């Protein structure tokens, strides 16, 4: 064999080894390389957080005289920037709850069985009112953390 043929043979062998190594590396990395473009995207689910609102006092009609309701509540949401949104929507939230409780009678609110339905009603009302006023927040729950009626 001549020197020229040995060089060509060595060059072909090196090309073959390089090609095989590259094919092996691409095959090994293909889930990472291809999956990044075509694979399922992982969505990060925000953990729900609770945002307490300032307490406020409402007047509730009764049989003989008006009563007062001290209400403290917390909003459960997974929405981003929830604290900022709830601060901006504070007046709308309080106004909606005032309207809701204005239609309630003292005897109705003094019944422990009404606690859960009242929270659900508040959730529905606040979800609607916040959406109508273009506040970008999705409420998971409304929790009454303190409710005192006198």
TrEMBL record:
It comes from the Bacteria. Pfam families: FliL. Keywords: Cell inner membrane, Cell membrane, Chemotaxis, Flagellar rotation, Membrane, Transmembrane, Transmembrane helix. It is found in: Cell inner membrane; Cell membrane. It is a single-pass membrane protein. Its main location: membrane. The keyword Cell inner membrane applies. InterPro entries: FliL. Belongs to the FliL family. Controls the rotational direction of flagella during chemotaxis. PANTHER family: FLAGELLAR PROTEIN FLIL (PTHR35091). This is Flagellar protein FliL. It comes from Shewanella sairae.
